[in-house]
Description:
two-stranded antiparallel ribbon; mainly alpha; 4 helices; 2 strands; elongated
Amino acid sequence: MTETTFENAVDEMVGRLHPILLTIQQGGGEEALYSLQQQLIDLMALVERNPGIEAATGDLYAAAEALVADRTTCSQPIARKLRLLVHAHQRFREHLSTARPLKPGRRSVWLHGNLRFAA
Length: 119
């Protein structure tokens, strides 16, 4: 995969995350969380393992998961959880800018909390 092709693929996948995160921010539940998880898994399948990206990915998912869980139990304060999700998404994008493509023929496994990424 050329560098331009890799960057385009990553940009396209990151673009798919935005509507999912908006859905979660606006009250989306488990279905939106599952969509986020699948998008993150698909994205990580393209990327060489990187601890910073792995942590940022886990933080993004954990922030989304906390928001969904708290909304279903009517827990407060939602504003703080929304802010955490927005900041986690920003950190994720910053860390993803350092991503390198997974070398052909290689597989990687990403582990973080409830997420297991097998690429």
